[in-house]
Amino acid sequence: MCALQSFKRRLDEIEDPAFCILGVSRILGFVDKDEDVRRLSLREQFAVFNTLDDIDHTICRMIADGESTKDIAATVHLTTKSIENRRQRIMTSLGLRRPVEIVKLLVRLEENRMIDRLR
């Protein structure tokens, strides 16, 4: 949720009833019980995504491809528990709540030409 500051001003000098009030709002900041829950912008998520190591990138791409945790673990030579832990750490660092949001993020990054094609 955003906190807004709004300004209103009468425009009597125009002398047209269709233009009698001008309203302008600006975002002051985000309001949330827990500041960490605030959604990161795409640019912020991209910056965080770039700090992830190659294994994390591989995990993200395999999740996007619909691979199971077991298949991901076999590919990157880690245990399934390690993959689950890394996936949770990735989601936390990117401000995501569910694994499907990793897929959505990668699609958005690809659509905005911030990363190469997923496949």
What features would you describe in this structure?
With 119 residues, the protein is an alpha+beta fold. It folds into 2 domains: 2-35, no CATH class; 40-111, Winged helix-like DNA-binding domain superfamily/Winged helix DNA-binding domain (Arc Repressor Mutant, subunit A). Helices cover 48% and strands 16% of the residues. The chain has helices at residues 42-51, 54-64, 69-76, 80-94, 99-111, and strands at 2-10, 21-30. It has a two-stranded antiparallel sheet with strand order 1-2. Helix 2 crosses helix 5 and helix 3 (69-76) crosses helix 4 (80-94). The chain starts with a strand and ends in an 8-residue tail after the last helix.
Task: State the main characteristics.
119 residues; alpha+beta; Arc Repressor Mutant, subunit A; 2 domains; two-stranded antiparallel ribbon; 2 strands; 48% helix; elongated
What would you say about this model in short?
The protein has 119 residues and is α+β, with helices and mostly antiparallel strands.
Please give the structural blueprint.
Elements: E1 2-10, E2 21-30, H1 42-51, H2 54-64, H3 69-76, H4 80-94, H5 99-111
Antiparallel strand pairs: 1-2
**C-alpha Rg (nearest Å):** 22 Å
CATH C-level label of the largest domain: Mainly Alpha
| Mean pLDDT across all amino acids | 83
What is the spatial order of strands in the main beta sheet? 1-2
Order of helices and strands: EEHHHHH
The global form is elongated
Percentage of residues assigned to helices: 40-55%
Report how far apart the termini are. Answer: 35 Å
Return the structural class.
alpha+beta
**CATH architecture heading of the largest domain:** Orthogonal Bundle
InterPro entries: Sig_transdc_resp-reg_C-effctor, Tscrpt_reg_LuxR_C, WH-like_DNA-bd_sf
Pfam families: GerE
Organism: Rhodopirellula maiorica SM1
Protein name: Two component transcriptional regulator, LuxR family
